[in-house]
Amino acid sequence: MAEDVFKKIVSHCKEYGFVFPSSEIYDGLGAVYDYAQNGVELKNNIKQYWWQSMVLLHENIVGIDSAIFMHPTIWKASGHVDAFNDPLIDNRDSKKRYRADVLIEEQIGKYEEKIAKEITKARKRFGEAFDEAQFRATNPRVLDNQKKRDDLHQRFSDAMNANDLEGLKQIILDEGIVCPISGTRNWTDVRQFNLMFKTEVGSTAEGASTIYLRPETAQGIFVNYLNVQKTGRMKIPFGIAQIGKAFRNEIVARQFIFRMREFEQMEMQFFVKPGTEIEWFNKWKEMRMKWHQALGFGAENYRFHDHEKLAHYANAACDIEFKMPFGFKEVEGIHSRTDFDLKQHETYSGRSIKYFDPETNESYTPYDIETSIGVDRMFLSVMCHSYMEEQLENGETRTVLKLPAALAPTKLAILPLVRKDGLPEKAREILDDLKFHFNCKYEEKDTIGKRYRRQDAVGTPYCITVDHDTLKDDTVTLRNRDTMEQQRVKISELRELIEDKVSITSLLKKLV
């Protein structure tokens, strides 16, 4: 059922101008997508919400835009050249390649689903008398699946922490995990695969140097942190925010725009005094969850997932996961990266980039808290939660995107009832007045009902209809997307009624 819904969302994205497969007339390019006319507006609004929540609401956070091409030694210093790998396994029968860790995580999820089904059945059977804690502690089927899940989780965690590729394969064999395509267990050994794209810079082949397309945007911040600190006269704690493209040669790219080879990140590195990093890590966890929940998607659709295997640079890490149609998946990572990156760049560059603290009269290497969101994953989470098919009282079904109004591509559709009698001219007069304040669209083709449905499908929160009474009393019919309620309002009141509800400011006010 969830898979069917996801297929509908993917189809909806193409049909209504949100996301197109890249290079489609040439049969496409795997795991690469183009944002269409509505998609780019939604994406820009997501980025604006994030950017303003960082640099507008915090005096001690500023932004930069670093280059995609960077000196190749940066990636040696960061560990990406030696350690930026995925564990991959092939099925010999289907010739398909998979990430071994993802196959095992999905198996863990199956045990969790079995437990959830048992609890759902019991809740229906016992009603208000149902005690979930007691049921979990006593039901044999729940206990059996919980043990299998916990034992598998422990083996998986041990293998990942030890970088035990043979151990990962043995888990896949022991659990009887089959290839989704062939249905067989004819697996190869697990191998490591580096995810960075290489290219060359230089005018001739002989004089060209190998460089990399950046696999993350964070390093551009680290190598510029002292420049920003000095020119901006920044005092610790302070942060640097950046939105930009990153590139990873994902062999197993799937689930639409969830995992792509070219993607966009919104990252903020927050530099703090050593010893205070865990306190700031917990503060940023709280602030980032608040940012997500301000969209109104329901607290039950988010959860923290603490990392058991920490990256080589971290002393604490967690993900914010969102409930997609295919399960809870990471949309944001929050990491305490210690002083690893800055010290590595000091070592490899041979230059001191320590911070001088005027209050303590000492120099030290700051610690760093990172918050990192994939814009594309955020886009997908917004689309997945907003897509709905509603049964109406007249028996019809309407497809509607209940996007947060501040993120919606179009805020107001202006619709003349008919294409004559001066109504189009009046509608365009209203458009010309409001288009300076928020994104408006004019549409006159088809019946008013069909036009309402089209605007519902692209998530437009408000429509106004210009009719013959408008010419007499300067009023229009204002329709609300979510409730479909209509009210008569004066044209002069439209901006005041709509602007605050559809502005990014309306979201930002929930954060302070």
TrEMBL record:
Protein family according to the UniProt entry: Belongs to the class-II aminoacyl-tRNA synthetase family.
Binding residue positions for substrate: 99, 216, 263-267, 370-374
Catalytic activity: tRNA(Gly) + glycine + ATP = glycyl-tRNA(Gly) + AMP + diphosphate
Transmembrane regions: none
Gene of this entry: glyQS
Documented EC number(s): 6.1.1.14
Name of protein: Glycine--tRNA ligase
Biological source species: Pseudoprevotella muciniphila
Lineage: Bacteria, Pseudomonadati, Bacteroidota, Bacteroidia, Bacteroidales
InterPro entries assigned: aa-tRNA-synt_IIb, aa-tRNA-synth_II, aa-tRNA-synth_II/BPL/LPL, Anticodon-bd, Anticodon-bd_dom_sf, Gly-tRNA_synthase/POLG2, Gly_tRNA_ligase_bac, GlyRS-like_core
